[in-house]
Structures are given as structure tokens and as C-alpha cells.
Amino acid sequence: MSQQPPVRSTSSPPPRPDASMSLLTNVMDHSLDDGYAEAAARRAEGGKGLPSTLRAKLGVGAALLLAAVVVTIGAAQARISAPTLAKERQQLIDRINAETSAADTLQKNVDTLRDSVGAKQREALEKHGGDQAELVSLLAGATAVKGPGVKLVVDDAKQTTTGGGNPRENQGFSDTGRVRDRDMQRIVNGLWQSGAEAIAVNGQRLTALSAIRAAGDAILVDNRPLVPPYTVLAVGSGQKLSTAFQDSPDGQYLHVLQQNYGIRASISAQDEVRLPAAPSLIVRTAKPQNTGKGKGTS
User: Fold this and answer.
1) In the prediction, which pLDDT does 71 show?
2) Fewer CB within 10 Å of terminal CB in the chain, N or C?
3) Alpha-carbon distance 137 to 124, whole Å?
4) How far apart are CA 131 and CA 227, in angstroms?
């Protein structure tokens, strides 16, 4: 009996359980890309990545040499320029010191000339003023004075905020708690009207030509800035002058500043106050009367 050949199964083998994850399987089986592997093999065969040809080696050497030359030149220039900069800086310092010294010398000369002019003016007042020379000199502020009077100290509020730089307006007082130029003007005018014979603010003697103005938040008297607290000395009849000022409208104005805006002020009668002479007066339009010919110009 002939044997039957074995029957072969034509069915395909069962699929792998991870067949649906072929991409992940490929990544796990081949974690290193073939290109990286080939590059690593070439580096292993050709050495450690150094240029293999003479031309490449010369190029690398030239680049390194150029970099070294640039660094060397930069360091040399820095060393050369450092003494020059130091010398120029010292020259500027020396020039500033010299100009400052020159300005101080000029200021001393100006003060000396101002005192000389003031002395000449006082001599002229005494010579041509007749019996009223002393009174004229007093009213002009050309001589230092002393006598009974009052001392009025005015200062900004304790917690003062900087305003916009403009003097306080007549209405509202809404800007700051600072003493303004208009406040000082009213105080000085009130003292004059109350009987003061001579007034000085922070040692600055007031005359008929004096001006109290503002520059930002600063108060200027004859273009000289004052620093608070402001000390006003007035020659007069002591307690009578103090009472008259406090009862005047300008004294009440100062009282309102104290009560409503925190400005600090104190006034006291003094047995003696001393006021310096005013700086030299510059009169541009008035001329002395020509008494010799009986005619004069004004």
C-alpha cells in the first residue's frame, strides 16, 4: 500500500503579541541610529577627529595664530591706552581744582569790592545827607544797626511734600506745607506796616530795592537762596512791634498758615537785635542833586 504524503498546513504562523506595536519594537531593537553608528565607525578608523590632510591642518593652525594675534594686540592696546586715560583724568581733575580756586579768588575780590563800594556809599550819605544823614543811611540799609526788636522764626511743616515748583497761589493753599515767597512777602510787609525800622531775613538785610522771589521750592532774597528755617529780625519797639504784627492782617495770615497747614512759626520780643549792612546798592536811574548850580536832575 502506498503511503500518503504528509499533509502540510498552509496556514500562516500565529502573529506576535506585539505585532501592533511595530514602531516601538523597532525603536527598542535599534536604539542607535544606523547613521550614528557609521559616523562612530569612521571616527574610530580615522583617529580622534583631527584633520587628516595637510591643508586642513594648516587652516586650523592659521586660525589659531590669528586668534592669538588679535588677543595680543588687544592686550597691548589696553596697556598702552591705560596710562593715557589716567593722565587725561588727572588733567581734568587738576583743571577743575584750578578753576575752582580761581572762582574762589574772584569771589573774594567781589566781596572786597562790594565792601569798598558800600563804605564809599555810606561816606557819601554822611557827607551829603546833612542832619538827616544817619536817617538816610538807616533807611537805605547802608549801615549796620542794633536795638530792641522782634525775632520771628518761620519753618515748613514737619511732614512737607515737594510741590510742583510754583509759588503758592492766593487761593486754596492746596499744594504743600512749605513756606512760599508770597508768604514771606506778606510777613515782611506786615512787619514794615507794624513799625519795623529795619529788617533782615537769614542775615540778608532788606532795602527799598530788595526783592523776595521764588526759584522752584527755594525762596530768594536779592537773588540769594534762603534755607529754612527762616529767621526774620526786625528793629522796633520790642513788645509793641510784636503785638502790632500779630494783630495785623498779615499776622492773622501767618496764624492761618499755622493752624490749617502745619507751618511752624514763633515770635518773641528781643532786648537787642543786630542787623548787618546791606550789600552795595546799584542805582541805575536816580542821580544826586546838583546843589552847586541850583539845578538838579531826577
Assistant:
1) 86
2) N
3) 10
4) 39
